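Reply to dn_fold:

You asked what the input looked like. This is it:
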Amino acid sequence: MIASLSKGSGKVFSMTKSGFIAVLVSGAMNPVNLQADVSNHSHPAIFQKNTITANTESFIPLTTLITEALENNPEIQAAQQEREAAQHRIAPAEALDDPMLEAGVINAPLASSAFNREDMTMKMIGLSQRLPFPGKRGLRKDVASKDAEAIEHGYQETVNRVVRDLKTAYFDLGLTFEMIKLVEKNKLILEGFLHLTERHYIVVGMGSQADALKAQTQVSRMQDELLRLARIWPAFEADLIRALGRNAKGVVPVPMPLQIHAVPLTLETLQQEALAQRPQLLALQSLIARNEKSIDLARRAYYPDFDVRLSYGQRDNMLDGTRRDDMVSLTMAINLPVWRGNKIEPRIMESHAMRDQVSSLYQAQTNEIAARLRQQIAMAEQSLKSVKLYQTTILPQARLTVESTLAAYQVNRVDFLTLLDSQMTVFNYEINLVTTLANYNKALAEIDLLVGKKHH
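and this is what came back:
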């Protein structure tokens, strides 16, 4: 009889039944200790370019990475620079226009260039200043202040968004890391099952070669899953590096093992927190107030501004030496806001429209936040319930089923397919558990963004 069996290493063995018995007797593992042997296996795969280790010294807490992102992320730095620029625009908005200095000769006769022939000929120097109608300067400052306030809230929104992106990438990377470990562990168990089927078929004389082929197929599936995880790992690495503001050539941090910290989630409470502190909503409120000030400022265009001018005229003495007195002039001019229909009133209507637009945006964002909060709270609550169910009931029962089925298979009371199916069920439940853990943490990260949790 010829046995053609594919081992976990990928090699194919073809030998007689008696020759294969010798191999198994010399090196086969004890199937009774199979679960214990693989339970301590926690190292994930090593890829061609990415060496991922489970050494606890290489784990980096999320809080450490958040601090790094706040310091180095270029989006945050750009938003901070924009905030500083907006603050510097407040003082100039209230400042007066530059005064005008003028100098020249007035009333000089064309017939002669002498300065002492005519009494009204003077060398003049003057200074003029435009003074806006009372209240305009204050309103301009208020508009600039509200603009700066909105940009300040926009800066905080950028911070929160970057932190959310960082958390999402961190948990996705952590999930991939945990899945790699589970796949490696399950691959070892399945390889043990492969040895077990070979022993039953060759040594004990029970089972069939098809059982070994089924086990080998599942081992190959695990290898393919490792390759798939190796493909998606760099994408999550890139997201994490981008959120941190690091150079792509830097060392990628290894996330901490996935954990769950249950927090109370009440929709009404979170909605109130969002209305009170979400930077996006606060920025829209500032823009509404800004446009209210713009309306008042546009209405002030009905009132004129004032141009005040003070000049000094120096006159030369008369031809006979008689002294002429110098002269001082003080004048004031105002502009006439007569073009109301096509200049002032359209600007007032524009300011009204902009205010109404921002008010509508505020209401839309409020509704969007309420809807997304409801979704994320539901996801977090369902994930938390699922985690507890997996940890306390489903996985313990499934693992006991594997142990019982393994013992029954050794005495030929159940077929191999039942054993294989029970182990794959445990594996799928373990994958579901870590996926649910990641989903819970990502839902909390999204909720933090929605309610505007601050990060300093």
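The two ends are 72 Å apart (CA to CA).
Hope that clears it up.
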